[in-house]
User: What shape does this take?
Amino acid sequence: MKSIQLETERLLLRTVREEDVPAIYAYRSRADVGKYQTRYRRLADARRLIKRVRGIALNTPNTWHQLAVIEKSGGGLIGDLGIHFTGKENRQAEIAYTIAPEYQGKGYATEAVLRMMGFLFGKLRKHRLVATADPRNKSSIKLMERVGMRREAYFRKSFWTGTEWTDDVLYALLKEEWPVIKNIKKGR
Ligand SMILES: CC(C)(COP(=O)(O)OP(=O)(O)OC[C@H]1O[C@@H](n2cnc3c(N)ncnc32)[C@H](O)[C@@H]1OP(=O)(O)O)[C@@H](O)C(=O)NCCC(=O)NCCS
Assistant: This one.
């Protein structure tokens, strides 16, 4: 399997394509979007993100897969999600997410991440998912907590941004915790 297509009530999540480069660059090059993650400086940065997915089978250990987040009601490409297949046994993954500022605050990131988690725990049988963020990135921390992840670690000055060493918080969720989270989100 090389590509994925998943659906939620308001979104389509599908493997990124070459033609997504300008739309991804448009928000990934913004200073506010790049405040706590790598900011894209050139179109080539967005091209690289897509290139790293092409030709690599989904779920290959030590590789990334990238999904475009599409608003079904017409907004087009509004964000992207990353999946890093980690661990020697290939039963763990790191997840990452970005939503264009004009589409933030609508619950789209929560909706997309919960769907991606369902796919990773279900179809790909992952045992544990993790996500990390700069502790100053309040929106990212709120999102990790909203989707049910638990804070497991706080690393001091462990991430080199290119200009400074920053702290890093790590959140995780186990497969056995997932049914509880899924049902809470469905209001059961
Ligand atoms: C991290 C990021 C994806 C979070 O996006 P977000 O829009 O805040 O998250 P959600 O889509 O889950 O939206 C939640 C907000 O929408 C509101 N909301 C509105 N309608 C909603 C709905 N139908 N369902 C759920 N929430 C809804 C919630 O109340 C919440 O608001 P609050 O933040 O004021 O509490 C976004 O800030 C981002 O892309 N940042 C830049 C990139 C980045 O730093 N990525 C992470 C690197 S570690």
Q: What stands out?
A: The two ends are 33 Å apart (CA to CA). Residues 33, 36-37, 97-99, 104-110, 133, 137, 139-140, 142-143, 146 surround coenzyme A (CB under 6 Å).
